[in-house]
Each structure stands twice: as C-alpha cells, then as structure tokens.
Specification:
This protein has 423 residues and is α/β, with parallel strands linked by helices. The chain has 3 domains: 6-116, 3-Layer(aba) Sandwich (Rossmann fold); 137-359, pyruvate-formate lyase- activating enzyme; 367-422. Helices cover 31% and strands 23% of the residues. Helix 6 packs parallel to helix 7 (204-214) and helix 7 (204-214) packs parallel to helix 8 (232-238). Keywords: 4Fe-4S, Iron, Iron-sulfur, Metal-binding, S-adenosyl-L-methionine, Transferase.
Length: 423
C-alpha cells in the first residue's frame, strides 16, 4: 500500500469541479494529499468536457501522466463523454462517475481496474467540508444539474437534471467552514439560480436569507445566474448588505436572433432593463458572451455590438465558440472564421475594460478587501485580493502576515489593471 500513499488531484474546468475535488480530498482516508504531481504516486483527474478542446486538454494530461508511469484515476464530466474510450485505451487505470467520488478512499486501495459509469443521476453528496485547502474563501456547491437545453451545451447530459442540496446540509456546511476560519463563501453549482426547483416552497432567495441569519459570514458571493431566474424575491435577497456588490448574470449574446438559435430563455430588452436596475443600486455587473457561434453573421454581430454597448457591464467572460460533439450547435453549417471571432472577442474586452475603469472612478468609495496572496519585493510585500465589487486590489506592506485578513482602504490609486494602495 505504500506505493499508493501520496495523491495529487488535477482539476479541470469550473468552480463546481473545484468543490467536487474538495469532496474527494475530504474522503481520502489514510492517503496523503500532495500539491506537487511529481511527488505523487497516484493522480486523480477531475475532468471537464464543456468543449472538444476541454476533452483534448484532459487527454493530453493523461498521456503525459502515462509517460511518467503514474497510476491515474479519471472522474468528472468527461466520464460521460470520453470515459469508456479512455478506459479502453488504458489512458487511466480506472474511471468513475460523479456519484462515486465519495468512495475515493476505497477505490485507491483497489489493484484491479474498474469502470463505473453514472448509475444515479439524482445523486447528492453527503460530505461536509471542514476546510477549503489553499484558499482564503470557500466555494460551496448548493445544487447539481441543469434543466436548460442551450444549443451549444453538453453539461445537462453529463450533470443531469437540476436538483438541490438540503437547506440543513448547506447551513451546516457554512457553520463548519466558519469555524475553520472561512469568512467568505461563494455559492456555486451547475445552475445556481435553479436552486429549490425540486424543493417545496424553498428557493435561492430564502436560502440567502437563512445564510444571512446565521451571522457567521462577512461576505457571500452568488455564482452565475440566469436572467429569467431573477424575480422580485431574489432581487430583495441580493440587496442584503453581506451579499457582494457584484453579480454575474449570464447573457451569452445580445442579439435576439442569436439567443433564439442558442435556445436561450433570455431576451435583450428584458435583460437590459434588469441590468439597468441593478446598476442603479450600485452593483458591478458581469456576464458571459459567446462570440463566433454558428450563424453569427456580420449583420447579427453589428446588431449585437450595438445592443452590447448599452449594457452597464463591468466584467465579462467572453468565449470564442468551441464545438462540442453531441450538441445541436455542432450540427450547424454557418461557421464563423477564427480570425473574425478573435477580433470580435477583443472588441468586447476593450469595451468592458473602459466600462470597468469608468465604474471605479464613479464609485470611489471605501473598499473592503479580503487579502488572498502575496509576493516578496524590494519594498516589502505586494499583496492581492478582491474588493466588494469583485475588482482586483493590490497593495504594498512591510507586514508579512496579512493573508486571509479583511482590510479597509479609504484612499487608493485607480489604474487600468486594478486599484492600488498601501499599508
């Protein structure tokens, strides 16, 4: 058993996968978790399959580990799309789906190979995570799966239908994290806004209020929301003082024709009204945007760009469309050239960079920063963290013990790449 003692986790993809990795780390039993793959005897790959490119990244890593003669286990979303092929080609010693991850401690004792495909699409983890290693904040998964059917997305078929973690489990998890020193929690999931869709008279708004009533967190951040999920009750909950003054609301596009092609529920006119409402309340606002999706003609792009400029956006995750086999979008023939898509992407980035600095200049208020990391410099230490608007804040100090602390800055310098201060 000595040759299976040290385990390294390689996590691909989203925050939900980060949480799933923490679940596995909490169920390792007698095995030691290491942060350097070179020191590990066993590699557990928590895979992403959101695009064909994501699959390629996972496969490349598996090939690298095979050449290094590591014993590799594959789990995550890629099990549903590429797991059987990877197992058959001996790129992983064993493969297991999402619902088996809490058995990781037992699996690592097995000598024989195994392939466990998903057998329980309604699975919900029972593990309470006491610590979120290496982080100043914790990501907490509150739901699993998605009931949407966006044309470009494979995730509902590998994560299953939307289902919610019990309220008591989430509140207990937050108390446990608080006792370990965590004071900021990010609520995450496959589709966070659908929390409660399978519960009786309970939803995300009520959960936020119940978390607030615990009075153990300094800041709560909400994962990506769909515009169609934000009703008046949720709006009121999002106004609670401990909720971060930043919201990420997924648009994906600002042309109604493209939204229809993507099988999205949101529409530009109601989206803009919603964003304007939150902007008037002083929120920084972020979103996702897919450029280069099949069918995005120059005419539709110009329409979308015209609409996009109206939105009070300060943050953006723009993506160039990447084909995902098994989706409706992958069957469409009107493709957008890569160089054109890249130009469109940079256009959006430039607009958002200008919006962001304009917001920071217009909202020069005291900033509350959770210090995350530091590097040593000639002047002492340079620290980095995020403020209540989800903007990056850097500051210098001679003190060496500020990581994980909350710090207030009434005066600071606004630069293009972030805000800067001193202690």
């Amino acid at each position: 058993m000595s040759n299976q003692k040290r385990v390294y986790f390689k996590t691909f993809g989203c925050r939900t996968n980060l949480f799933d990795t923490q679940v596995m780390k909490s169920n390792l039993g007698t095995f030691e978790c290491v942060e350097d793959e070179n020191l590990a005897d066993v590699i557990v790959v928590n895979s992403c399959t959101v695009t064909n490119g994501a699959d390629s990244g996972v496969r490349g890593y598996l090939n690298k580990m095979r050449h290094l003669r590591k014993k590799v286990y594959l789990t995550g979303c890629g099990v549903g799309t590429r797991g059987e092929e990877i197992f058959a080609n001996n790129l992983a010693h064993s493969v297991f789906a999402h619902s088996f991850k809490e058995s990781i401690g037992d699996f690592l004792h097995k000598d024989e190979r195994f392939f466990y495909p998903e057998s329980n699409e309604n699975h919900i983890d029972n593990t309470l995570i006491a610590q979120f290693s290496g982080k100043s904040r914790a990501f907490l998964k509150i739901q699993e799966g998605c009931n949407f059917a966006c044309s470009y997305c494979i995730i509902p078929s590998v994560r299953g239908k939307a289902r919610s973690y019990p309220k008591e489990s989430i509140l207990s998890q937050i108390r446990t994290l608080s006792e370990s020193g965590i004071s900021e929690v990010v609520l995450t999931g496959t589709n966070v806004g659908s929390y409660g869709v399978d519960l009786d008279d309970y939803n995300l708004a009520k959960l936020i209020c119940d978390i607030n009533a615990l009075n153990v967190l300094k800041r709560l951040r909400i994962g990506s929301l769909e515009p169609s999920q934000i009703d008046s009750e949720l709006k009121n909950a999002l106004m609670l003082p401990f909720v971060e003054r930043h919201l990420h609301i997924a648009l994906q596009h600002t042309s109604n024709t493209m939204l229809d092609l993507m099988n999205r529920h949101n529409r530009v006119e109601s989206d803009l009204a919603l964003f304007d409402e939150f902007a008037q309340q002083g929120f920084c606002l972020g979103s996702d945007f897919i450029v280069g999706h099949p069918g995005e003609s120059e005419e539709l792009w110009q329409e979308a760009l015209h609409n996009f400029k109206k939105f009070p956006l300060t943050h953006l995750h723009p993506f160039i469309y990447s084909k995902r086999d098994g989706t409706f979008s992958s069957t469409l023939t009107h493709q957008v050239r890569g160089d054109i898509a890249k130009t469109r992407l940079h256009t959006l980035k430039d607009i958002i960079a200008a919006h962001n600095i304009d917001f920071r200049k217009a909202h020069y208020v005291p900033l509350e920063v959770l210090c995350e990391s530091k590097i040593e410099s000639e002047e002492g230490f340079v620290y980095s963290g995020l403020d209540q608007f989800f903007n990056r804040f850097h500051f210098t100090s001679n003190k060496a013990d500020l990581e994980g602390q909350w710090l207030n800055f009434e005066s600071y310098e606004i630069r293009e790449e972030g805000n800067y201060g001193k202690i």
